[in-house]
């Protein structure tokens, strides 16, 4: 299984277009300790020829351009992108679907709640259901990921609920266990990827779920809960947004302590997060705990 990081930043990317927080300022100034990042998305392939996107960020067009395995091949219309799996209806996870119009056959996977949200928004009708097949993911079940037309891709995905919150723009409706999900992606050879880009708490149940994974990509939105307030760019805490912080006694580094997964990286990193700065105290703490910070363009072979 090949896993490619298309975008490692949270919503807004890094630097964010309207942000002068201390970390974004480094990026605007071209400081070599930080690298720009696009918004949260990965691509997975069992055969290297057919790829599934896991979340479609508003930066998708730029991400396709930056990742040669996703370029069209042959003559006429073609794409190695066989489908998209969306984990929730966050703008940074579904905005890129609009860039996948042009009547390209695709398989689109999401929970009933996510697919219903997309169906309720007429603009997503640009992905004509006649061409873009919708497939419902059911919590606690494993589904094969099929190429458009139904052939096997060699990948399957298991969806499970994790502690979290609905997408910010959907708040006010009723909450659901499907609002925040983690995914286990398997191939026929036993490789296992655990992808959890949003999670409010590392519970024993979450730890148990990812047992046996070779690669864990986990919510690295914030270093500390009041980071956006302290950076002067917002009023919301991480807890309010459904994201566990990395640092602190109740943080995810502490929560994951002792887990035996060979490769562990934080992804979906907010632009205020000091782990984005090479050499920072916080980056050092992450590395000493056996973790890494995901970067755009990284590829893992499982
Ligand atoms: Zn910023």
Description of the structure:
The radius of gyration is 18 Å and the shape is globular. It is an alpha/beta fold and 302 residues long. A seven-stranded mixed beta sheet has the order 6-5-4-3-2-1-14. The protein has a seven-stranded mixed beta sheet with strand order 7-8-9-10-11-12-13. The chain has nine helices and 14 strands. The longest helix is centred in the middle third of the chain and has 9 residues, at 112-120. Bound molecules: zinc ion (ZN). Zinc ion is lined by residues 16, 19, 21, 23-24, 233, 271-272.
Strand order of the largest sheet: 6-5-4-3-2-1-14
From the 3D structure, determine the CATH topology. Metallo-beta-lactamase, Chain A
Shape-level CATH architecture: 4-Layer Sandwich
Radius of gyration: 18 Å
Order of helices and strands: EHEEHEHEHEEEEEHEHHHEHEE
Helix content: 10-25%
Bound molecules: zinc ion
Total helix count? 9
Distance between the termini: 5 Å
Mean pLDDT: 93
User: Could you list the spans in which at least 5 consecutive residues all have pLDDT below 50?
Assistant: none
| Structural class computed from helices and strand pairing | alpha/beta
Tally of structural domains: 1
Q: Name the beta content range.
A: 15-25%
Main sheet: strands, sense, barrel: 7 strands, mixed
């Amino acid at each position: 299984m090949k896993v490619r990081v298309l975008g490692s930043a949270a919503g807004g990317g890094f630097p964010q277009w309207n942000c002068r927080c201390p970390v974004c300022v480094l990026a605007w100034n071209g400081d070599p300790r930080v690298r720009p990042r696009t918004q949260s998305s990965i691509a997975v392939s069992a055969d290297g020829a057919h790829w599934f996107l896991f979340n479609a960020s508003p930066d998708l067009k730029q991400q396709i351009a930056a990742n040669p395995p996703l370029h069209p091949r042959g003559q006429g219309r073609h794409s190695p992108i066989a489908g998209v799996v969306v984990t929730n209806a966050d703008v940074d996870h579904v905005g890129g679907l609009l860039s996948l119009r042009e009547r390209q056959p695709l398989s689109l996977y999401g929970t009933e709640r996510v697919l219903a949200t997309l169906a309720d928004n007429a603009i997503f009708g640009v992905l004509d259901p006649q061409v873009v097949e919708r497939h419902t993911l059911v919590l606690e079940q494993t589904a094969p990921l099929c190429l458009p037309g139904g052939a096997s891709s060699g990948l399957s995905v298991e969806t499970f609920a994790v502690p979290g919150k609905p997408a910010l723009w959907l708040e006010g409706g009723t909450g659901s266990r499907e609002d925040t999900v983690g995914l286990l992606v398997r191939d026929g050879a036993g490789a296992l990827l655990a992808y959890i880009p949003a999670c409010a708490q590392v519970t024993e149940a979450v730890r148990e779920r990812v047992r046996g994974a070779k690669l864990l990509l986990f919510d690295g939105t914030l270093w500390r809960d009041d980071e956006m307030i302290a950076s002067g760019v917002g009023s919301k805490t991480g807890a309010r947004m459904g994201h566990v912080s990395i640092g602190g006694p109740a943080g995810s580094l502490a929560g994951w302590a002792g887990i035996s997964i060979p490769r562990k990286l934080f992804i979906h990193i907010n632009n205020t997060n000091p782990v984005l700065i090479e050499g920072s105290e916080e980056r050092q703490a992450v590395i000493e705990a056996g973790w890494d910070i995901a970067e755009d363009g990284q590829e893992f072979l499982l």
